[in-house]
# Entry
Amino acid sequence: MTHHSSNLIADMEQRYRAAFINSLGGFKSVVLVGTVDLQGATNLAIFNSLFHIGANPPFCGLVFRPDTVERHTLSNIISTGVYTINHLNERIYKKAHQTSARYPKDQSEFEATGLTPEFSEGFQAPFVAESRVRFAVEMREKIPLGINGTILMIGQITDVWLPEEIVQPDGFVDLEQAGTLTCSGLDSYHRTQRLARLAYAKPDTWPECR
Amino acid sequence: MTHHSSNLIADMEQRYRAAFINSLGGFKSVVLVGTVDLQGATNLAIFNSLFHIGANPPFCGLVFRPDTVERHTLSNIISTGVYTINHLNERIYKKAHQTSARYPKDQSEFEATGLTPEFSEGFQAPFVAESRVRFAVEMREKIPLGINGTILMIGQITDVWLPEEIVQPDGFVDLEQAGTLTCSGLDSYHRTQRLARLAYAKPDTWPECR
# Structure
């Protein structure tokens, strides 16, 4: 094991440090966020900062760095109050990654990458038709993190679309069966291979596979 | 594709909904958080809510539900200001899962599960000796999320230990090579298989593998 001290980390070249620190968080959720501006122009952006906040009501969080291409997504969410979250799969991950390029505001990442916008009646933001697990989110709270200027967006999951056969009898959604991918660092994409689902842990028993 | 409306989600049985909603976030980081109380008693707890907040300075976030076994971890962090984050691998994931059992405050999850505490000079919180990627964190900010009573803890990564051979020339850490696992839902553990690392995206080119 090699020790990297805080001084060593502070002295790292900026891009090297970004790659290094972004890796430490482990394998992460990677999703496409679909939005629309007040004129109806669509936008699509890849995020690896989605996290679970609560199940009842169903809340999720996303972290925004306002100085990047994500700013179109953020301003669209603030304008319209809604967004979609779409899981990646093997057929679309390269197109998904490409949405992180700095396209001008008037060019939709759907058009630029060849992903297909799909709309649900009564909901403004576009879904990604090629995504097999996707859901609609309504903005609930925007929390600026004073510590470094990032913004935490909390949203409520309203409507969910997924293939019925991947929902298990206990509510667990088998994302591996859906082909959902995970990512690490800033640019590494991975499929998964299940080891086990483990039973609810109790002090007096040892974890069993479900 | 099946549609689950917000009414359908609100009407789900509580545990079913917890499993369902926890799955939607995609594959997640899963780590062991090591802490110590003011008397020096060690505590270890599994978390799947770690997320990246910034690389310079290096900040990470963790979400706490204060009504669960996580409360020992939270109170220890508040008391001592420090914690460790330790990646899971195939050899320890069952023991890691078992730390989520409701052990009494006076029983260390290290002892209960057979994981080995390891200390670094000058740092109070215990690392997991069996973890191949681990780092020390200092508490920076505790943000109560009024929307549902969860707590967001922001910490600064200070010292990192990992096998030197998994650090790539550009700073990327090859977690797959380290055997780091990912999880989905509340109880499903997965190894990964890399598809590709993709080059930094630019509007006028198509993503290349690195």
Observations:
- Residues 17 and 185 of chain A are 11 Å apart (CA to CA).
- The helical segments of chain A are 6-10, 14-24, 70-80, 93-98, 109-113, 175-178.
- Residues 14-24 of chain A form the longest helix (11 residues).
- Chain A touches chain B through 114 residues (CB under 8 Å).
